[in-house]
Amino acid sequence: MPLPYDLQPLRGPRVTLDALRPDDLDDLHALQSDPDVCRYLLYEPRSRDEVTRVLERDAAATHLEKADDYLQPAIRDENGAFLGTMYLELHSVDPDRTAEIGWILAPHAQGRGYGAEAARVLLDLAFGDLALHRVYAELDPRNDASVRLCARLGMRHEGHFVEHMWLKGEWTDTGHYAILEREWHEHRNGGVNA
Q1: What pTM value is reported for the model?
Q2: What is the rounded CA–CA span in Å between residue 193 and residue 100?
Q3: Among 1, 106, 124, 184, which residue's Cβ finds the most Cβ atoms within 10 Å?
Q4: For the N-acetyltransferase domain, which residue ranges apply (predicted)?
């Protein structure tokens, strides 16, 4: 696996993924304090102080070398406006070469293809420069938009864990989706749902 890797801006036709910056605080706080956005996330809406700490931590997440290292880049549109964040965490380096992917999109950017494009850019990195074998996503199966995005990316529904965790005062299920390197290349070259 070609590591270490340091995040450089990753560009798609309409989006760029790059490191979070201090001037993203207002937009990141609006995103992470929104109850509708946080509904299916692992945390409750965050205060400005909490988001300030998260921004400092995640802005530094630009280096991949070993298991548990992660990237948390901002998603920006063609004019540089903040649209949300992506997530890629290495779970195994050698020999399994596995990572988890995730995304959070601002409400004004949802339903416009930005999430799919940003995820494709990150999966191209994962299965290209990083030479990963498998990338998976875990999500609340009630999150229809994320379930649809997994399908658009060609990810296979591998499992549904019933009442998998106690979260926000209720038992919640977890959906598990994944795609292999060879499947990603087939998908990108005109496969189903491309």
Answers
A1: 0.93
A2: 21
A3: 184
A4: 15-186
In this prediction, residue 162 carries a pLDDT of: 97
And the tokens for 182? Answer: 């060879």
pLDDT tens per residue, range 45-74:
999 999 999 999 999 999 999 999 999 999
Q: Which of 122, 139, 127 is nearest to 84 (CA)?
A: 122
Which range of residues forms the domain containing residue 106? 8-188
CATH number of the domain encompassing residue 30: 3.40.630.30
Within-domain flag for 51: yes
Q: Is residue 194 part of a domain?
A: no
Q: Would you say 88 and 99 are in contact if contact means Cβ atoms under 8 Å apart?
A: yes
CB 102 within 8 A of CB 86: yes
Residue 54 lies in a domain: yes
Number of domains observed in the structure of the chain:
1
Contact criterion met (CB below 8 Å) for 74 and 21: yes
DSSP state string for 123-185: HHHHHTTT--SEEEEEE-TT-HHHHHHHHHTT-EEEEEEEEEEEETTEEEEEEEEEEEHHHHH
Residue 73 has φ and ψ, to the nearest 5°, of: -75, 155
**Residues 103-138: tens digit of each pLDDT:** 999 999 999 999 999 999 999 999 999 999 999 999
